[in-house]
Amino acid sequence: MSPRPLWIRGGRIIDPAAGVDAIGDLLLLDGRVAERGGKVDGPDDAQVVEARGLVVAPGLIDVHVHLREPGGEHKETIATGARAAAAGGFTSVCAMPNTSPPIDDPASVGFVVAEGRRAGGARVYPLGAISVRQQGERLAEIGEMVAAGAVGITDDGHPVMDSGLMRLALEYALPFGIPVADHPEDLGLSHEGSMNEGLVSARLGLVGKPNASEDIHIVRDLLLAELTGGRIHLQHVSTAWGVEAIRQAKARGVRATAEASPHHLILTEAAVEGYRTDAKMNPPLRTDADVAAVRAGLADGTLDVIATDHAPHHYDEKESAFDDAPFGIVGLETAVGLVLTHIVGKGVIDLPTAIERMSPSPACAFNLPGGTLAPGSVADVTLIDPARTWAVDPTRFLSKSRNTPFSGFELTGKAVMTVVGGEIVWRGGG
Amino acid sequence: MSRSAAATPGLGKDLVGIEDLGARQITSILDTAEPFKEISERRIKKVPTLRGITIVNLFFEASTRTRISFEFAEKRLAADTVNIGASRSSVAKGETLVDTARNLEAMKIDMVVMRHWASGAARFLAERIPSSVINAGDGAHEHPTQALLDMLTLRDHLGGIAGRRVCIVGDVRHSRVARSNIFGLLTLGAEVGVCGPPTLIPPHMRELGVRIFHRVEEAIEWAHALNVLRLQLERMEAGFVPSLREYNRIWGVSRARLAAAPEPLLILHPGPMNRGVEIDSDVADGPHSVILEQVTNGVAVRMAVLYLLRGGRPDKAEAAKAEEVA
User: Fold this and answer.
1) Are A320 and B96 within 8 A, CB to CB?
2) 8-state DSSP, B40
3) Could you report the predicted ipTM of this complex, rounded to two decimals?
């Protein structure tokens, strides 16, 4: 059944894929963009949304989220995660397969797809595991998983320690047109670490993960992508040298895409002071020099997408000694505010570039529909109020989990309406 | 992060780390410990200062000397003490640290002395219960009363701390004793060095203003005092050093090596010692070793800490020790 026509009037339409940035109307019909720009004469039965003062963007896409289902439903479910995504302004998310059991066969891929459809929030695109049970030994049924709906493969949660296996994955994935996403980390250097290795870890008496543990696998992955002609997607890049290595590899023509997370663009290891487990994630928060390099990488396109690595954990689990707490923070409901306030607001990139990094670029990296408002495109739209001031209150999250270091942050900029396939799946101000 | 302590010698609710203390606070604790030393010399080793106060010694890691030292300090101040060891406590049944804390709070305990395997555990507990929390060692982070007794001992023998050169020898990477000593000695104006194999010395220590030596001969030539740390068997098993034998051959504090020093060095060790590994017996038992004095000072320092955390005034400590137990 088609949704009612949706007529979004008078907003600032920013469609980076088409080079559009102008005040105008947007008409959505039958789940597709019918008209974009200028004054549109909408049908009488259209639902009208007055968007003056708002930004009208192609639906935002987060290519790195953990929805915890199956197995971790106390932290999040596909349904709560999809709705939290919509509340954050996202129309699509890519779900990581490190669940319990992991998503490593077509049946479990199908499960995630079906649950995502039922949720009524953002679209959920699963990634399948690279290896059976994510154990890093042999390839999972990649072709079958793609046929069931997987848009990429990753062993995230874990790195792929065996370079031979990573090479096989990059080669084998080629005919299916999907990227191989990697969590770059050399466990031999970092497996006991709980934060960045540096002065803070030395003072706090915590074992650290050195930059080298991430850099070594970033460089390895780039070289293997070069060797095989495969597509590598580097997740949550946090190191200065990692950014530079990607820049150099892309210049050589390597088919690489890479992520920057809001927290690695904003926070440093100083956030861990006092053993705050809400600042514990992997890769860890690092130094000012690393943050500066990640920002520069986002600005010049070396880092193609902003992805949250939304990692919900139950309050009980994070309420523990630092070494015992699990890694990760939620991110879906703070990303837009953080990016607008601390990235665009600080002049690292302008607003159209931010939208580019959060919509067309992620769509391109994983061959997803959307990313543009060109007529004929899927009707996924995000409305943002760039002037809305709000304070981060985790008790109001739609996510089941509250683990964020940004609690209480005063932000400017918020998604106020999320449209998926022409349907308003979320609307809110507060 | 250090809280500025310039204004007041008061310690606040807890003693979680030396890093939180200013020079005046550290000096105040050392000064307060002096009168308490004498109580241990008496026939009746008790004053009523903490009568009616309940203290729990909550030890998640096995420890004989530190726990006994605290227990003596508590009993000599007439407090009521309870010991909870990890094997007997409900931690073995999976109770979380949070719940242990809440249970203690519900029992209206006045003070908790805790040793735990996780760095940050003392601060974790201190933030969640109204009782005073004294850190008896949290993971690799801090062991503040050890550093305080080390500094008291150094002060007694070197005539002061500022400008003196103290080198910590051994596994600094994993050592809470090293960290607390580094923070405290730097705050009091000492020159601090660390010495050991590079695998056991975090390079970032340099950024704190600490000198790094990789050869013990150089450390001996430089220092006025050595604080020698125990090298644990686990470090060899984890591959940080190839063997205990090699460690002793290259970094062991021996009489021959010490003989090369221009002036005799003071020798400290937090104990327990691995004789023949990090320190040779003729050094540990030699004329410049103050290891046993450290133990004696430990009880006095812990009495001072307990006294000050209960709101005792440093200038009243002399009077406190004069009270008779009824």
Assistant:
1) yes
2) T
3) 0.85
